[in-house]
Predict the structure.
Amino acid sequence: MGSQKSDKERESSHSSFARLITTSRDISPYLGLGLQLAASILVFLFLGRWVDGKLGTEPVFMIIGAFIGAAGGMISFIRTVLKHDERLKREKQHKD
């Protein structure tokens, strides 16, 4: 009898699992944003470095590329956050 879980323990366990799933779903859109931002900066930085090598204008296009990558990454970051926030608001309205 001691090895069997009571109904209260099972309900608590199920509730904890449901909260974990909900939390995972809420944070999942943000998990790749840091990597995406870093990747966009690096891609444009190296693209600018390549252009500088072809034109002999070091480090002009490398710096411009880094700024373009940072701006693009931040725009993507902000769009993702706003889109997720809007989705959460719609879900909350549907629940009410």
Summary: The two ends are 42 Å apart (CA to CA). The chain has three helices and no strands. The chain has a mean pLDDT of 86. Residues 32-95 form one domain.
